[in-house]
């Protein structure tokens, strides 16, 4: 529920991608529902973090229908820079 609710909230107005900053220790938690690490590890508030991203797809069960993402995406792409 903790991950699903914000995804559903973002999906309603048509967002197609969800990004987050995960503490290094909980990266496996976010990988289970389909998030992929992007970019290099970084420090945020003195704690190691990883940027993570997943695609959002409409439909009856979005947890089963994810857009494929490549781990090779750069952190720069998360910021919307070209």
Question: Which short descriptors sum up this protein?
Answer:
82 residues; alpha+beta; three-stranded antiparallel beta sheet
Question: Strand-residue fraction?
Answer: 25-35%
- Strands of the biggest beta sheet: in what spatial order? 1-3-2
Radius of gyration: 13 Å
Q: Into which percent range does the helicity of residues fall? A: 10-25%
Find the CATH topology.
Answer: Aminopeptidase
Q: Outline, from the CA principal axes?
A: elongated
Annotated CATH architecture: 3-Layer(aba) Sandwich
CATH class: Alpha Beta
What is the mean pLDDT? Answer: 78
Overall number of strands = 3
Task: Explain what the structure shows.
It is a single chain. With 82 residues, this protein is an alpha+beta fold. It has one domain (4-78): Aminopeptidase (3-Layer(aba) Sandwich), CATH 3.40.630.30. It is built from three helices and three strands, in the order H-E-H-E-E-H. It has helices at residues 4-11, 27-31, 75-78, and strands at residues 17-23, 36-44, 47-55. A hairpin with a 2-residue loop joins strand 2 and strand 3. The longest helix has 8 residues, at 4-11. Residues 59-67 and 70-77 have low confidence and may be disordered.
Task: Give a topology summary.
Blueprint: H1 4-11, E1 17-23, H2 27-31, E2 36-44, E3 47-55, H3 75-78
Summarize the structure.
This protein has 82 residues and is an alpha+beta fold.
């Amino acid at each position: 529920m903790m991950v699903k609710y914000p995804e559903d909230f973002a999906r309603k107005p048509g967002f197609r991608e969800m990004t987050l900053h995960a503490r290094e220790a909980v990266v496996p938690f976010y990988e289970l529902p389909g998030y992929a690490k992007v970019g290099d590890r970084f420090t945020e508030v003195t704690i190691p973090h990883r940027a993570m991203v997943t695609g959002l797809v409409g439909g009856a069960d979005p947890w089963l229908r994810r857009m494929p993402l490549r781990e090779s995406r750069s952190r720069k792409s998360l910021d919307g820079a070209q």
